[in-house]
Write a structure and sequence with these properties.
Rossmann fold, binds 6-O-phosphono-beta-D-glucopyranose, 2 domains, globular, alpha/beta, binds magnesium ion, 214 residues, 11% strand, 9 helices, 6-stranded parallel beta sheet, DNA polymerase, domain 1
Length: 214
């Protein structure tokens, strides 16, 4: 029986995936590295440094670890400029409706995000109030597709993985959920992924998947 839902943040609850794209695009352009939405989709769910390594794999240029650190923090500065302008109105009606309904049904809700910026995003959008637990880039040592972030979220909720659903927009996130023994729900890009168990078009649709329908 499902008792908890673990949500990825960027690209699932909020459109911050666009801000990640714009910030990385600025860095890639600066170094003349080809970067488009297709490459960007490979970065979904992946940590900041791993994302940079994927972007750099499209270039012949060689960068030292110190140079890469500078590029990653520059990207993060640009990204945080977008985040700082976010407000509660950035949360869609669909997202609010689904979260309210799930809470009203007595389900425990958690965040399972690779992002170290999760606390800032939750604060700016006033979303922390929806969640019983937060597991994010600040409490993990292995990024998705490793299941660590979701296993910790389930643990914080005092639930077993088989009692939880993972909602993801990233293939790496679906892989992480599957590896951890969770039922996976895919939205956006992950809705087309063959390993996704339950594809949905929007979060309201989550309320009607067989495991959650009343
Ligand atoms: C994930 C995003 O949620 O967080 C990735 O999908 C991102 O694209 C990762 O790289 C890490 O985010 P941050 O905010 O710690 O740089
Ligand atoms: Mg995501």
């Amino acid at each position: 029986m499902i008792k908890g839902i673990i949500f990825d943040l960027d690209g699932v609850l909020l459109f911050t995936d666009k801000y990640h794209y714009m910030a990385w695009k600025a860095i890639a352009d600066k170094f003349n590295i080809p970067f488009d939405e297709k490459v960007n989709n490979r970065l979904r769910g992946v940590s900041r440094m791993e994302s940079l390594n994927i972007i750099l794999s499209y270039s012949d240029q060689k960068f030292s670890e110190a140079e890469k650190e500078v590029m990653a923090s520059e990207k993060n500065e640009l990204y945080r400029e977008y985040l700082k302008k976010m407000t509660p109105s950035d949360v869609s009606d669909d997202t609010r409706y689904a979260l309210d309904k799930l809470r009203a049904r007595g389900l425990k809700l958690a965040i399972g995000s690779s992002s170290k910026n999760t606390p800032l995003i939750l604060e700016k959008t006033d979303m922390a109030k929806y969640f019983h637990a937060v597991s994010d880039g600040n409490n993990i040592s292995r990024g998705k597709p490793d299941p660590e972030v979701f296993l910790k979220a389930a643990d914080y909720l005092n639930l077993q993985p088989c009692e939880c659903i993972v909602v993801e927009d990233a293939e790496s996130g679906i892989d992480a959920g599957t590896a951890g023994g969770f039922l996976t729900v895919g939205i956006g890009c992950a809705a087309q992924y063959e390993k996704t168990k339950r594809p949905i078009k929007n979060l309201t649709e989550l309320l009607t998947i067989p495991e959650l329908s009343e």
